[in-house]
Amino acid sequence: MKKTELIFIPAPGLSHVVSTVETAKLLLQRDERLSVTVLIIRRPNDDLTDNYIQKYSPNSNTNSRLQFINLPYQENSPVSTNVLFDFINNQNDHIREIVSNLMKSPSQSSDYKLGGLVLDMFCTKFIEIANEFNLPSYVFFTSGACTLGLFFHLLELKYEQNQDLTMYKNSDVELSIPCFSIPVPVKVLPAVFVEEGPMSNIFLNYFKRIPETKGIMVNTFHELESFAIEALSNQNKYPKVYPIGPILSSSSDDEQTSHQGYDEIKKWLDEQPESSVVFLCFGSMGSFEESQVKEIASALEKSGQRFLWSLRKPGGKGMMHLPTEYEDFREVLPEEFLERTEGIGKVIGWTPQVAVLSHPAIGGFVSHCGWNSTLESVWFGVPVATFPLYAEQQLNAFELVKELGMAEEIRIDYRKDMRGEKPSEIVGSGEIEAAIRRLMAEEGGSRVRNKVKEMKERSRTALMDGGSSYNAQSVFIEDVIKNVS
Q1: DSSP alpha helices (H): ranges in 120-256?
Q2: How confident is the model over 377-396, as a mean pLDDT?
Q3: One Pfam family this chain carries (predicted)?
Q4: How far is the C-alpha of 119 from the C-alpha of 268, rounded, in Å?
Q5: Catalytic residue numbers?
């Protein structure tokens, strides 16, 4: 039986690494002919990613075909303001050496071939390395099909229609984008594309290389984004799209990455009525300044809802500074808030999100609308109230609220300045409270809740034998093997 190895290269950060590794595991489970090597690009002090990777050991058939290589972290390497991409690009020589060594490996024979590089959307620079070794390259797109369609549309506006995208900054214009069934307000576009400065071109140059690849795996499923997937499938100028999701960390895996305090959290949740708790969590990068924390606290208290709130401390200015943990939540919460809400609410630090969302006590989710979190909420049938922060999260919020009718809106266009160069807008407690009430209402929220529960069943069917994503995975595997035969 011929064997084929794929090299996966995720971008730095837990959300990209988790979805990449879980995709690799899924493909390995599907076909014994495959093996996978994942190259890990570390950000400084990224303990969450380190803990996630460390739990893997070659103690099963799947894990024995899955290996990790931690690329060296260059602490003293010169970096520019584009620090995330510097961390990626500085690994070019290391990745070339690893690919070269794998190509020369004694295992490379007529029965064992290197099948190509599977690159994160921010790692398309390494297409050059695949080309050097005459290897196919693929993209694993960690966001959804609507976002992929938006990026392709922005490429066309800039490079085919010669539009200056900064014309859309602070604009009320709505765009007709092929992957959306309704017009999209430019206020929900990722800010990087409409701001002055070099970053728009940097991002678009990464996406501009996607057409050089053999195909794009997208972490979505046909039933969730059918309009977008069909629009992408009906065009000829971009590579083949494989909707293989939803890919998410399993509850048992996620628990293993948590701190010891999860037992206390689970005990508290076990004591709450079914679907009675609203869970607030804003991802591995999510945090707020004190003024916004107080507005959220006020909204929770006035709503009277049971709540579990993952509250984390801003880690400093810039995208490379991850949030940290509070030593005492009282330093940022309103005076005596913890005492007044004792019994109906619990404030915590970092927590395993999947394990919490899977608990039957959780009835609603105030989320930053990262794509992983979006898929997790669908998988467990938990409706969302949207509080996007950065990147493509505003677009995800728009898709959930307006395109799909599957979420309640706190805001769809709120954004936090992740560089810390200007103060963020404050969302008032009244606005947050009203959305939480709609989210948790048995009557008013039933339309959204019913849609999410219906999509929960469809998300699971998609991954079963004969389901839409199961079939897309099969097609991808066969295409990979065909491309190296």
Answers
A1: 127-132, 145-155, 199-208, 226-233, 251-256
A2: 97
A3: UDPGT
A4: 41
A5: 16, 120
